[in-house]
Amino acid sequence: MKKIGFLSFGHWSESPYSKARSASDTLLQSIELAVAAEELGADGAYFRVHHFAQQLASPFPLLAAVGARTSRIEIGTGVIDMRYENPLYMAEDAGAADLIAGGRLQLGISRGSPEQVIDGWRYFGYAPAEGETEADMARKHAEVFLKVLEGEGFAEPNPRPMFPNPPGLLRLEPHSEGLRRRIWWGSSSNATARWAAGLGMHLMSSTLKDDENGKPFHVQQAEQIQAYREAWKEAGHEGEPRVSVSRSIMPIVNDTDRAYFGHERTSSDQVGFIDATTRAIFGRTYAAEPDVLVKELAGDEAIAAADTLLLTVPSQLGVDYNAHLLSSLLTHVAPALGWR
């Protein structure tokens, strides 16, 4: 059994072929797709965060709105770039959104990926300390965020406050009990997966990772998951960690599907450089009739190792079509693979 959800980057475009032609379209359609996914029996609605782009950015208003419109589905991010974040302000926003959703947030955070502008986090007022990298800064922000989510007091109270204070040091409010245990780290390497395990975060692995040994993408990702679980056990954490992987899976069940994705039938892994020094491997798109998909997906070692599968959706094709894709996978593919 697996949890199955969708992951939307929330692209919009003024193209006449796009069903999401503005930021307003994308935000409102994201809410409607989450509602539709819950009605279909899916388990999660996740949203990517990119800055300086015509895509979803500030996540918490959207997460709160989805939380208010749904009652069961998990709501999350995949992922928030911690280079851009004030971890204390983020903890307040996250606590509020989680309380609105009744404790259903599953927040994916990360050190981030190449963005639309050079050092975009500098425009947000952040810069690495001397001798640190931007990745160090992101991980430091993440560690502060995790600490304040524990809900312990740390701020000295004013002896003459406007309103009476509880005794002792003060914590951030609103505090949502249990949110600290629902934080995921989006990892592209085995080393950062082990680091995340040490801090007790769940693992989120996408359709891209560092090419560390030249093996097929799904094999490298399965090895990453194994390294993460070993590190979790070594750290002595209680319970079992969760692991999600993202995939582009397009069941072809009608002529519209065939027109959109028939050309992806021969898709394969790709290797390239995402910056000057990082060689990455990109996972293939799965596009075929359901019986073919069942055979192909059964051989994906990383999906087999994960407990959660996030389907990347083509947001510009609109709510109805993306709900159709989810329905096709849940109805025609998942049962045959034992995911349902």
Automatic annotation (TrEMBL):
Luciferase-like domain ranges (all copies): 8-259
Pfam families per UniProt: Bac_luciferase (PF00296)
Single annotated GO MF: oxidoreductase activity
Gene3D superfamilies: Luciferase-like domain (3.20.20.30)
Annotated keywords: Oxidoreductase
Top EC class, one word: oxidoreductase
Residue ranges the record marks as coiled coil: none
Assigned EC number: 1.-.-.-
SUPFAM superfamilies: Bacterial luciferase-like
Protein name: LLM class flavin-dependent oxidoreductase
Organism: Nonomuraea salmonea
